[in-house]
Specification:
64 residues, elongated
Length: 64
């Protein structure tokens, strides 16, 4: 697994599409099923691909 980082303009477009998708979903007419990924922070911290700065759980809890 690799982390994909987008350019700011791509993120703005993505966020706009997500907003429209959720609006359509709540109106009962989505063009695809929206998905939310929810996982504990430890999964992110223990994954070298996602935790590229090497933060520890202690640093996360202490705010830096």
């Amino acid at each position: 697994m690799t982390a994909e980082y987008r350019q700011p303009s791509e993120l703005a477009q993505h966020n706009h599409e997500v907003k429209k998708l959720w609006e359509a979903y709540h109106q009962g007419d989505p063009w695809r099923v929206p998905v939310i990924f929810n996982y504990g922070i430890r999964c992110r911290l223990l994954s070298p691909e996602l935790n590229t700065r090497g933060y520890t759980f202690q640093q996360y809890c202490d705010g830096g």
